[in-house]
Amino acid sequence: MTIKEIAELLRAYTDEPDETFMSDNDVKAFLAQGYREFRDLVTKIDPNAYAIAATFTLTNTFFIDLATTNVTFTDLTVGKVLGNSATDGKKLGQIIALASTSSTNPSGQYIYIPVSSSQALQTTSSSYMLAGSNLTVSGNVTSLFSMAYVPMPISTLWSNLASTDELDDFGMFHDVVALLAYKQYAIRDGAINEVLMAQLQARIADLEEGITHRNLDAPHYVQRVMGGIDTFY
Fold it and tell me: pLDDT tens digits, residue range 174-205?
């Protein structure tokens, strides 16, 4: 579905055909939050669905500040992935996998294990932890790293509600975005449409089944290897 179609669907769901009680700014805010939730749902089913990659080099050190240090994206542009200067549309939302590799042998990748505490980082070989904007690995290393991650949506995505651009490649489920956006409207309105909420749950179930079977066993494989992926972009 296009951005225009999704915005119109939200207005239909809310029975607010004009800006009398729901402004275009309200629509943009509700859809932005709905889409963030939609991407989160999709990513939980298939971590690679929105994944992109960035590379950076560590030279005899164990950390990189992703808010102050540029990385290289797959289109060979450079920018930051965290902080106020993060590249719009490429800001880090969730790391999928981190691997050290060689610029002369990109197939020789070694996947690092994610941990959530400094103690685990010190006791787990070839591990990493993201704390704030600092990405820390388990010891001093000199290597090229490739990081697969889910980016945040571009901030201007909903700026033009008349846009005929497709939202993304999951068009058959874009009504879920409008339904999730309706939930935000209902919170403000203080009343829930039970029929729409039932439809939301049914469509989320359809989304889960559709994406699970989209790449056959791929999503399950990704879950089995704790979020690691075989191929970096």
Answer: 999 999 999 999 999 888 899 999 999 999 99
Is 169 within a domain? Answer: yes
Give pLDDT, residue 91: 98
Are 43 and 58 members of one domain? Answer: no
Determine the structural domain holding residue 88 and report its residue range. 52-151
Residues with Cβ within 8 Å of 16's Cβ and at least 6 positions away in sequence, in order, are 22, 185
Residues of the chain short of pLDDT 70, as ranges, are 102-108, 215-233
Task: Give the pTM.
Answer: 0.85
- The residues, ordered by sequence, that sit 6+ positions from 223 with a Cβ below 8 Å of its Cβ are 47
Backbone phi and psi for residue 134, each to the nearest 5 degrees, phi listed first: -90, 120
Q: Give the containing element (helix H, strand E) for 159.
A: none
Same domain, 160 and 196: yes
Number of domains in the chain: 2
217 Ramachandran zone, left/alpha/beta (phi>0; psi -120 to 50): alpha
